[in-house]
Amino acid sequence: MVNEWGFVALAVAAEIIAALALRFSHGFSKPVPTALALVAFGLAFYLVSLALVTLPVSTVYPVWAGGGTAGVALLGVIALREKTGLWKSIGIVMVVVGIVVLNMVSM
Questions:
Q1: Cα separations (Å) of 37 from 29, 32, 102?
Q2: Which pTM does this prediction carry?
Q3: How many C-beta atoms lie closer than 10 Å to residue 94's C-beta?
Q4: pLDDT tens readout for residues 27-85
Q5: What angle do CA 62, 86, 73 make, to 5 degrees?
Q6: CA 95 – CA 91 distance, rounded (Å)
Q7: How many CA atoms lie less than 13 Å away from 81 in the CB half-sphere?
Q8: What is the DSSP letter of 55?
Q9: Is a pLDDT exceeding 90 seen at residue 101?
Q10: pLDDT score at 7
Q11: Helix H or strand E encompassing 83
Q12: Rounded to an integer, what distance in angstroms lies between the CA atom of residue 85 and that of residue 50?
């Protein structure tokens, strides 16, 4: 059985999938990526709602949003070959460090 933090991790994954599908939807003009984006966003919201039954929103929401942000940024650079630089890299690292700190203080 998936625990509450498992729901958050799955929500982050769904958020990343949704954002990448949104990128390929070309303004909702391509039906398959559009449908994938909408379903994945819906799944992400549902999974976060399950986690929020027992976990505090002050921890879950930043972890979910930050995890999705860092994941999309990393995949954009790695898989989509988007340009990166020092400041973008520092920003991604700061988001990840923030997520780690939030998890440490919520235990």
A1: 12, 9, 28
A2: 0.87
A3: 12
A4: 999 999 999 999 999 999 999 999 999 999 988 998 999 999 999 999 999 999 999 89
A5: 40
A6: 6
A7: 0
A8: S
A9: no
A10: 97
A11: none
A12: 37
